[in-house]
Amino acid sequence: EKPLRDCTDGTWRGIRFFTCPPGRGYFCPLNTLKQDTKYMDTTQSDAPPDFQSILTPDGTEIHISSVLEEDYPKDEHLLYADDNITEAMPPTSNIEWQEGLTTSKYINAQYSHDNLRKDHQQLQKSHDALTKNYQELQEINKRLRIALQKSQEENERLQEVNERLVQTQTELASKLNEVAKLQSSLQKLENNWKINRSEISLSRKELGRGGWGVIWMGEFRGQRVAVKQMHDVIKSEDNMDLLHREINTMSQLRHPNLLQFIGAVLDDDDDPLIITELMDTSLRKAYERKELTTDPGCRPVILSIMRDVAVGLNYTPLST
After folding, report:
1. Which stretch of 130-134, 190-194, 210-214 has the lowest confidence by average pLDDT?
2. Looking at the domain assignment, is residue 293 inside a domain?
3. Which of 74, 100, 175, 291 is most deeply packed, by most CB within 10 A?
4. Are 33 and 103 in contact (CB under 8 A)?
């Protein structure tokens, strides 16, 4: 196991004859090699015992020690010193030397070829693995590109939706502002026509009767007025909504040909009251008294009444 003294690594004068670790090789006669060594060419013959020197491939003669393989550990002197070796090996032919050298080179080349083939196989496996990984990365990149495109399209769609939402919110805010203004105006109108019940005094004189209620003669702040008292049986939620709509419409009408709305009493505990101006007569009374007949003398009066009704009806949709 220990390096032999003055041994080489298989190189002599810049020429490599065999390969081994530094300090663990030496030159010996071919007849000292075992027959089963893989470095021995079976076609070669043993060297003669009087072998003194050998020739290198370039024709240089070198002297080799005659130390045997089993006697070497007992030898204490150098195997060779530069070009002068006192103990030479038996001579051999240059052809045998070249054949042995060729065999050694072939074995080394075969060993190198096997190593290179293993390296090539390993590189091929690595190349195949890298190719597979590259293809997988290409597929992942393709899917990511598709996902990115879809994400961009979805983002654009969401931006459009967001813009529409912002526009809708702006319009809604404007509408809410208008509603607030209308509610404020309506509140002011309600405050204008709401009347306290204590300000109304009713007489027992009935002016008329209908499906919604009875009309009484009354007094409001010293002025004679007509008071329409709603029937208790129609005080449902839907009917009260209709009544509020009627009151809001009447409160906005101001025309000499329309009955003047004064106010209303909408207490939860009592029946609703609608207060209007008191007229001296009505078409029903004129008809019942036969004041309006087919007599030619009544025709101007009838035409005047028809005109006043038409003018009042024409004003109603324009002001609501």
Report:
1. 190-194
2. yes
3. 100
4. no
pLDDT tens per residue, range 197-231: 889 899 888 888 887 889 999 999 899 999 988 88
DSSP labels, 46-69: PPPTT--EEE-TTS-EEE-----T
The parent domain of residue 203 ranges over: 197-319
Question: How many structural domains is the chain composed of?
Answer: 2
- We report the CATH number of the domain holding residue 232 as 3.30.200.20
In this predicted model, what pLDDT tens digit does every residue of 6-24 receive, in sequence order?
566 777 666 777 777 776 6
By C-alpha distance, which of 211, 269, 197, 208 is closest to 239? 211
**φ, ψ for residue 62 (rounded to 5)?**
-125, 150
Q: Is residue 219 in a domain?
A: yes
Q: What share of the chain is helix, strand, coil (3-state, %, to 5)?
A: 50, 15, 35
Where a domain ends, among 92, 127, 143? 92
Annotated ligand binding at 132? The verdict is no
- DSSP E strands, the chain: 11-12, 15-16, 53-55, 61-63, 200-209, 213-220, 223-230, 261-265, 273-277
In a domain, 180, yes or no: no
| 3-class DSSP assignment, residue 210 | coil
Q: Report phi then psi at 161, rounded to 5.
A: -65, -40
Which of 47, 77, 92 is at the close of a domain? 92
Torsion angle of alpha carbons 294, 295, 301, 305, nearest 10°? 0
Quote the CA–CA distance of 111 and 109 in Å, as a whole number.
5
The verdict on residue 269 lying in a domain is: yes
